[in-house]
Amino acid sequence: MEPVARRLKTLRNSASPSITVRQIAEKLGMSRSAYHFYESENETGFKQRFLPMDFARRVAAVLADHGINPDDVLALAGIGLDESAGASLSAGEEQLLSYFRSMSPDQRRLYLQLGDQFAQPIIPADVVGSASATVHDGRPDFQAKHEKQVSA
């Protein structure tokens, strides 16, 4: 199998409109050299079998605006491989992937951005057990119930 760094570079180079290393790095909020690390096959480049999931999702969102199928980028993180390749998805993951594949590129980009928001802790760990959620204007509103214990 071709190294992931080479496959990532090939995807970026096949983008239309074209996108340079500098441009994609700026869109990802990283330095040119930080992005280049993932495309580099030399001794100091990226050597893992798969890209980190968060990085692949962000790259997929950027390259989707340049005509690259996000599934092709996510495959570099091991998503979408068949079971014989060692990856398997749960029924819920398969359902999410099915939804994602049916979306337009704009919808996919928004979906990935939403996923990034859900990946962030919503409630501090010390109050997770005493939290509630309500819906206001069609949006979830999470609130922690702070109960201070007073010592006598």
TrEMBL record:
Gene3D superfamilies: lambda repressor-like DNA-binding domains. CDD domains: HTH_XRE (cd00093). InterPro entries: Cro/C1-type_HTH, Lambda_DNA-bd_dom_sf. It comes from the Bacteria. This is Transcriptional regulator with XRE-family HTH domain.
